[in-house]
Amino acid sequence: MKILAIIANLGWLVFFIYVFATDKNSSPKTNSDIVGIPLVFLTIILNLAVLIFFDKSRDWLSLYLKRKALEEQKKIDKLAEKDDHKRNN
Q1: DSSP states along 60-82
Q2: Under DSSP, is residue 88 helix (H, G, I), strand (E, B) or coil?
Q3: How far apart are the C-alpha atoms of 50 and 55, rounded to whole Å?
Q4: Closest by alpha carbon to 2, among 66, 64, 52?
Q5: CA distances from 41 to 14, 20, 37, 82 (A)
Q6: Would you state the pLDDT for residue 73?
Q7: pTM (2 decimals)?
Q8: What angle do CA 59, 60, 62 make, to 5 degrees?
Q9: Which tens digit of pLDDT belongs to each residue from 23-73?
Q10: Start-end of H helices in 1-89
Q11: How many Cβ atoms sit within 10 Å of the Cβ of residue 41?
Q12: Could you tell me the CA-to-CA distances from 32 to 27, 75, 86 in Å, in that order?
């Protein structure tokens, strides 16, 4: 999935560069163009940097979600054990 996201981001980056380079009226005309065009490029480049350089298994959010999943699994196992004990008695 990570590789697919990187390929999609590279595709968007190439597409925006192509559109910007081939557009005859490519000079920014309004304030939203002046802010929007660099923002699109910056967003794609930052997204690529995060996908390529950050290991998802070590960030705080993934560790938190992993802990929550383990807590829920522990609850499920405890309920299943209680149910098995109840059936045996």
Answers
A1: HHHHHHHHHHHHHHHHHHHHHHH
A2: helix
A3: 9
A4: 52
A5: 10, 11, 7, 55
A6: 96
A7: 0.48
A8: 70
A9: 767 666 676 667 777 888 888 888 888 877 776 667 777 788 899 999 999
A10: 2-22, 31-53, 60-88
A11: 15
A12: 12, 51, 66
The mean pLDDT value for 8-19 works out to 86
Question: One-letter amino acid identity for 19?
Answer: V
Residue 28, both tokens: 């920014």
Amino acid at 47: N
Of 18, 21, 17, 10, which is closest to residue 44 (Cα–Cα)?
10
| pLDDT tens sequence across 63-89 | 888 999 999 999 999 999 988 888 886
